């Protein structure tokens, strides 16, 4: 039977998950009951401080592994989806993943559950450390019962939250724009900076949406900077592997070009690769900085470098067709 969302792979992780639960709880029972704790205080025994303090968080981590593996076992069969073209402004694009998400809910990862997962890890460590001191007061037997229960609960919390918040390895259900490319920078941050350039009137996203009976998928994503020039142009911003190559802009020329070349030019003191070529019967002009990965990432976070490169591309386009730069006029709020 054809299924757009194939969950049959999840079954193979049910037994390992249950075995993991039995092993984790079993080890806790052995440590706290078969090998009884000595008399308190336990805060003076560093081996017990580590065992008691880390056990809840450790159980949550192990459960998370199985939960994530179970989620990743889900496969998609998009062959029968009917894809249609759509265009949205950058700020509105992410909503497409939540509109009608009853058809693909959680397959691309749920930020809410991932937030709860992070909080559960922190809570597990705090609860464990609190238990070290609390067991001095309530005694070994009751404290051991509480610890075994906590280990089991935290394991299942890890399984559930990692499964709900995790994502499947498919670009069809995950928004690539919020993906982090450095510690403090996402692709969305870069695009927002490009949107501030004086030659960029707005940034739009062109993509295809596939609708089925049980699946909604987004594919063939292209981010375009709409220029404030005459004529208005749509310049594609490369989002694939931008963390490795830095900013890259491409303009597909409406009419074919007889020129084919690749050369290095200077853009505000930076060596830049200029390519004029043709692919799939479409002529294009492309620019990107010629630099290593570290410098490329640095330029992604530098608004001046992003704008300088945009100006450089428009200047190159002007060599093949009439282009007039018209700096955009920012909308100003009424003072009344």
- Low-confidence runs (pLDDT<50, min 5 residues)? 332-336
The rounded Rg comes to 27 Å
Number of helices: 9
Number of domains: 2
> Termini distance?
64 Å
- The helix content, as a percent range, equals 40-55%
Mean pLDDT: 89
Going across the biggest sheet, name each strand in turn: 3-4-5-7-8-11-10-9
Count every beta strand, where a strand is a DSSP E run of 2 or more residues. 12
| Secondary structural class | alpha+beta
So what's the overall shape? elongated
Q: How large is the share of residues in beta strands? A: 15-25%
Q: Spell out the helices and strands N to C.
A: EHHEEHHHHEEEEHEEEEHHE
The biggest beta sheet is recorded as: 8 strands, antiparallel
Structure summarized in a few sentences:
With 336 residues, the protein is α+β, with helices and mostly antiparallel strands. Helices cover 42% and strands 22% of the residues. Mean pLDDT is 89; it is low at 332-336.
Account of the 3D structure:
The structure is a single chain. This protein has helices at 14-34, 46-72, 90-93, 111-138, 140-165, 187-194, 242-245, 293-300, 303-317, and strands at residues 5-6, 75-76, 82-89, 200-211, 216-227, 229-230, 234-237, 248-252, 261-267, 270-279, 282-289, 324-325. Strand 4 (200-211) and strand 5 form a beta hairpin. The protein is 42% helix and 22% strand. The chain folds into two domains: 5-165, no CATH class; 187-325, no CATH class. The longest helix has 28 residues, at 111-138. It is α+β, with helices and mostly antiparallel strands and 336 residues long. The radius of gyration is 27 Å and the shape is elongated. It is built from nine helices and twelve strands.
């Amino acid at each position: 039977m054809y299924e757009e969302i194939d969950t049959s792979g999840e079954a193979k992780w049910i037994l390992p998950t249950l075995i993991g639960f039995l092993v984790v709880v079993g080890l806790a029972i052995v440590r706290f009951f078969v090998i009884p704790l000595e008399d308190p205080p336990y805060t003076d025994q560093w081996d017990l401080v580590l065992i008691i303090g880390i056990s809840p968080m450790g159980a949550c981590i192990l459960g998370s592994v199985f939960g994530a593996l179970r989620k990743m076992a889900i496969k998609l069969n998009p062959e029968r989806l009917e894809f249609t073209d759509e265009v949205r402004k950058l700020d509105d694009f992410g909503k497409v993943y939540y509109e009608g998400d009853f058809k693909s809910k959680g397959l691309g990862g749920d930020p809410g559950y991932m937030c709860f997962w992070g909080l559960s890890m922190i809570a597990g460590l705090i609860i464990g450390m609190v238990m070290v001191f609390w067991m001095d007061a309530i005694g070994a037997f009751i404290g051991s019962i509480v610890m075994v229960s906590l280990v089991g609960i935290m394991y299942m919390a890890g399984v559930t939250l990692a499964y709900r918040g995790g994502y499947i390895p498919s670009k069809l259900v995950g928004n690539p724009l919020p993906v982090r490319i450095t510690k403090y920078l996402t692709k969305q941050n870069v695009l927002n900076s490009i949107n501030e350039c004086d030659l960029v009137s707005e940034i739009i996203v062109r993509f295809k949406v596939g609708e089925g009976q049980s699946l909604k998928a987004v594919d063939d994503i292209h981010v375009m900077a709409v220029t404030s020039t005459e004529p208005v142009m749509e310049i594609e911003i490369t989002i694939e592997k931008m963390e490795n190559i830095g900013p890259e802009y491409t303009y597909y020329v409406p009419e074919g070009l007889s020129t084919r070349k690749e050369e290095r030019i200077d853009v505000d003191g930076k060596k830049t690769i200029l390519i004029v070529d043709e692919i799939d019967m479409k002529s294009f002009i492309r620019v990107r900085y010629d630099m290593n990965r570290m410098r490329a990432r640095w330029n992604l976070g530098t608004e001046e470098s992003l704008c300088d490169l945009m100006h450089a591309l428009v200047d190159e386009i002007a060599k093949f067709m009439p282009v007039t730069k018209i700096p955009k006029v920012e909308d100003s709020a009424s003072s009344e």
